[in-house]
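Can't paste images in this forum, so I'm doing it all in text. The chain is below; anyone willing to post the predicted C-alpha cells underneath?
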Amino acid sequence: MPIEFSVSTWQQPMPPTPGAPRSAVLDELVEMIDGRGDHRLRVAVDGLTAAGKTSLGHELARGLSGRGRPVFRASLDDFKRPWSERHLYDRESGEGYYRNAFDRDAACRLLLDPSAPTAEGIVALCSIDPLTQMDRSEVKSAMPANGVLIVDGVFAYRPEINAYWDLRIWIEIDAELSVRRGIERDAEMDGGADEAEALHRDRYLVGELLYIREVDPRSFVEVILDNTDFDNPRVVRPRGIL
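Text version of the structure:
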C-alpha cells in the first residue's frame, strides 16, 4: 500500500532499512498503532528538534503500509503562519516561536478535523510550504475509512490540539544532543555552524523547554521512546496499550 506524503518541498528522505534492534522497536510501535482499530487513526510524534520525529514517522508509515493500511504523512512544519505576516507578531524569540509560529486553526480545519473517523476524510497535508511560502492548502487527499494519519512536529500536545490524537509518541533525547544534532543537520542551510547553533539554542530549544514546562507532555503521552542511540532505541513507557 503506497504512502501519501505532503506536497511540501521541505522533505526528509525515507530512512534506510534499520538493523535488528531498531526493527524490533518499530514492529512494536506499528503493532500498537494498528491495534487501535480499523477506523481512521491520527498519530502524533513529538519531541525536541532533531530528536528523530520525521524519521520515526516515516518508519512507522512504512511499517503500517506493509500491513495494508493506507498511510498519510504530514508535519506541523507545514502548518506554520506565513513569513509575510511576521510583522504582526513575535516569531523569532524562543517564546514567540512557541506561541505564535504555528497556525493551529489551519491544522485543525485542513487536517485534523477532516481526518476524524466520522468526517469525510478530505484532508490537506500541507497549508503553507515552509520553503517556498506557497499556499498549498487546495491540494487535497482522500483518506479511506481505515487510513492512518501520522503527523510529526514540535508542540503537538498543546491543549488546543491534544485531544485529536489516537496515539501520542514522545521521542526523548537530551537537550544538548538536540542542539548538536540540529547544528549538524542545518548548518549548511542556515549559513554556518554559528548561525545554526544560535537558531537551535536561542529559539528552538527555548521555545521547546517552555512548552515542556507548561504542558508536561511526558506525563500523559502513551509512548515515550528514548532515541538517544538511533540504532538502539528503547520504549520507556507504553501506557495502556500492551
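The chain has one domain: 3-175+218-234. The longest helix spans residues 193-215.
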